[in-house]
Amino acid sequence: MRLTVERMSYGPGAVAHAEDGRVAFVSGACPGDVVEAAVDKDGKRCLEAHVVEVLEAGPDRVRPRCPYAGICGGCPWAQLDYAAQLAAKRANVVDALVRIGKLGVERTERLVRPCRDPGDPWGYRNKIELAAAEQRGKTVIGLHAARGEGVVKVDECLLFDPSHKKLLKHAAGALGYLANSHGLALDRVGLRGSRRTREAEIAVWTSTGPFPRAQAVRMLEQGKKVTSIVRPMLKGDKDSMRARKVTRVERLDGIGAWDERVLEEEMRVSAPSFFQVNTKGADALVSLVLEALEPGPEDVAMDLYSGAGTFTLPLGRRCAWVDAVESYGPAVRDLRKNLERANLTNVDAVGGDAGREFPDDADPDIVVVDPPRAGLAEHVVDLLSETPARAIAYVSCDPATLARDIARFEERGAFQADWVQPVDLFPQTYHVESVTLLRRR
């Protein structure tokens, strides 16, 4: 069908309308494009399509720098000018706050700052994950294809840190050979590389069971400066990512972890632990949290969903005390080790759910929350609203749940949104991070 594209969506595609009035989400399109599109999913209220031919190019269309754009699913906005990407991401945050948060157009436009660019719209990722799939009787290791159509074998990823660009081809080739010659069953492969510490890690994710350790180490070490090779072992239903659990992480070679530096703090992160994939973006998030909270030497801070310590460590340097809560076991262990390495003794690192392990005996002056995409549980909003904290810095990776949670805070009457700063941690994609200052009324 022929479509005229209107705007970018919060998703890989852009928004158009079919002749019958249904919304069409079109991958590979830009605002202002007139395209010939093929339908991938035909629903009653909306449809999904992809560009077959650009009949008229919109003003913000550029030639994608990546040759795999539209084939691999890693950079679905690569055809959109970067300034337009930043504008579209701010617009998506504004839309969520107006539509879901009910904050009103005028107020929201005042609240939301221009989307911040931390730098490096390409080559910014410190981590990429490779998928393994059976194709024509052989195991192929590569990046997920666009529209979920298998795996694309690539020699490099232009989103990955260029100082480690050869790691992808090397790891995919070595592990592909082992999979096809030694029957190695792979779940996925994680690659981490730091420009700041020069460390590189290969994480070979597999199920529990036999594993050709000696051959894997020998092949992965050949001619490459890999500082860590690990094997996270999984059990559970292979068809359900949520059901898959890490039983242990086996150190095959090297230090068994990966070091990165965020501002003045050096952190060690194990393969299962979450860490922001954009290091310069992580710098920006920490700076914004400190700007929002203005921590002082007599303050008591609370860090919920603390991970391995991205915000805990700088708060520990500046505050009298920090209560940190994290539910994921490997991240809790990383946090405690990072606190020990930093010689910070004024932090209580608690393992458990933020709601169940909420430090109810503490009276925080400042709070930072960095929840998963699902946002805050409603009872956590209640607990935070009852604290005497003067400010909350809410770090969000999803505009919809952020908008919902801001509305919940304001309904309870204790905190009000003061500003929202979108930060582009994921250039060439639709994802956007943001930091919101919630100030006590």
TrEMBL record:
Enzyme active site: C397 (nucleophile), C397
Keyword Nucleotide-binding recorded: no
EC id: 2.1.1.190
Location of the TRAM domain: 1-53
Keyword S-adenosyl-L-methionine set for record: yes
Any one of the GO BP annotations: methylation
Highest taxon above the source species: Bacteria
CDD domains: AdoMet_MTases
Keywords tagged on the record: Methyltransferase, S-adenosyl-L-methionine, Transferase
Residues noted as binding S-adenosyl-L-methionine in the record, renumbered to the chain: Q276, Y305, E326, D370
Single GO MF descriptor: methyltransferase activity
Enzyme class: transferase
Family: Belongs to the class I-like SAM-binding methyltransferase superfamily. RNA M5U methyltransferase family.
Protein name: 23S rRNA (Uracil(1939)-C(5))-methyltransferase RlmD
Species of the source: Kribbibacterium absianum
Gene: rlmD
